Amino acid sequence: MKPAKTLAILAIGACFAGCAAGPDYHMPTTAMPDKFSSGQVATNAKATTVPETTPIDDAHWWQSLNDPQLNSLIEQAIQANPDLEIALDRLQESRAQETVALGRVLPVGGGGGGAGVGSGSDATRGRVAGPLTAGTNSSGFKEITEVAGFDAGWELDFFGKNRREIEAAYDDAQAAVEARNAVLISLISDVVRAYMDARTLQLRLAITNQNIATEQQTFNFVQARFNRGLTNDLDVALSQRQLETVQAQVAPLQAAIAAAQNRLAVLLGKFPDDFAQELQKNPPALPQIPGPIQPGLPVDLLQRRPDIRQAERQLAASTARIGVATAELFPRVGVTAGIGLEGQGLDKSPDRTNSIWSAGPTAYWPLLDFGALDAAIEAQDFHTKALLVNYKKTVLGAVEEVDNALANYGAAQDSLGHLSLALDASKQAVSLASQRYDRGLTDFLNVLDAQRQLYELQDQYATAQEAVILQFAALYKGLGGGWEGYQSVPNIRTPMPAIIASFEHVLSADEPQK
Q1: Tens digit of each residue's pLDDT (9 = 90 or more) over 236-265
Q2: Which of 28, 162, 323, 473 has fewest C-beta within 10 Å?
Q3: What radius of gyration do the chain's Cα atoms show?
């Protein structure tokens, strides 16, 4: 090909150099409500809430519970949780794939060689790279039997295929960042839930043991009255029934505590035996209940919720891949070159060697594929539309989650307030029933009923305290809080050229996996 024609081909391709096939991505616009539909229900539990002093730090919302052990457990989980480690590995994988995509826009080169004998004039054809074969010259040879050299190629990105691939790889990496953030806020919420389960069960066990002690005293008192002939054996039987009924709750509570501790150990990346004494260091108690919460506006969720941000980045990556598929319709233009040596040997005489080289443009344009490439574009387009719907669905689900959490948090506070009043009344009822029984003004059934109801209310109150904190955690999980302070991740290893990397991997092949 004459130099003028070669330049013409490159000039035509250069006209398209600024183009990138496929649609440019624009972040979807989403109509958001002006406010969350659920408000917090006013609570009567004034004595149980923390006075409102400073706003809650959204990035470390769990610290508002003022529980140092919970704070320590969350930090341990962030350092050792397997799910979070998996999410980090996937993030690093996506970052490495960015380098792979960047490498496709740069020239590639390698060395190779081949040898053979046959009935033709060039026995190396098909055994070495095309640019080297193109440079061979059989003039003066009976047969070319050996070729060795270096070849290189560079695909010119006239239609933006590689640029769209880089764009998609970058968006994939950003989506992986948000996927890790989503795992992070779920992990923090799960640790709070598991910790609260364990603490609540411990508190319920302590309440049960206190009631066992009370019922034992009552049984001893009734037995003594029976021995003195002051009451009948029915009261003794009823008191023993009450005592045994309360004692029957101990074993299930102990088993539930062990299960909650096991769950917490797994979240921290530990075996249960390594964690068995962790929650025994402090007496069973629940954290203070936080005060009023300012949830912000629904539109804030677009930036705060990692799952929304992940869905948006996945949509961006898929849009870029429409361009990758579209670029397949257009010519592939590149430049290849080779330089090396050719020789005649392998019992062929005379032995001789010549230098060879070749360089020039290449082009390929798919013309007949029976619609396969166009169908690939259509498939990617539908995939992108599905991701757009998924993005909108994720936004709707996020608003619903916060609305529900706000309603549940307010309802849990209101329930706790009423249970607090009921608990005070129940304690008074036990005192009055006991006094009236001592004076012979009522039968023993009233005392037992008052004690039973007090125990049930104490148990319900402990569960209601947990419910408030769990709904508090669910609300902040719904608001997307907790990931902002943990964005530091290790750098990935700088990729080496293939020749260097091959030696590095050979040397590291015998090293154990970490």
Answers
A1: 888 888 888 888 989 999 999 889 989 999
A2: 28
A3: 37
Could you tell me which of 70, 444, 471, 40 has the C-alpha nearest to residue 234?
444
176 close to 91: Cβ distance less than 8 angstroms: yes
- Which residue has better confidence, 396 or 287? 396
Short-list 367, 324, 11, 327, CA closest to 159: 327
Distance CA(331)–CA(120), nearest Å, equals 34
Q: Calculate ∠ Cα 311-316-318, nearest 5°.
A: 95
pLDDT band at 323, cuts 50/70/90?
A: very high
Beta bridge partners of 110: 151
| d(C-alpha 226, C-alpha 232), whole Å | 6
Count of helix runs (H) and strand runs (E) in the chain: 13, 4
Listed range (28-37, 200-209, 346-355) with the worst mean pLDDT: 346-355
Could you give the CA distance from residue 190 to residue 354 in angstroms, rounded to a whole number? 72
Q: Among candidates 340, 338, 337, 336, which has minimal Cα distance to 353?
A: 340
pTM of the model: 0.84
d(CA 272, CA 259): 9
Strand order in the sheet with 332-344: 108-115, 146-156, 332-344, 352-364
User: Mind listing the pLDDT tens digit for each residue in 115-148?
Assistant: 888 888 888 888 898 898 888 888 877 888 889 9
CA 36 to each of CA 127, 295, 470, 474: distance values in angstroms, whole numbers, following the listed order? 69, 8, 20, 15
Q: Which of 338, 301, 327, 311 is nearest to 113 (CA)?
A: 338
Distance of CA 98 to the CA centre of its chain: 20
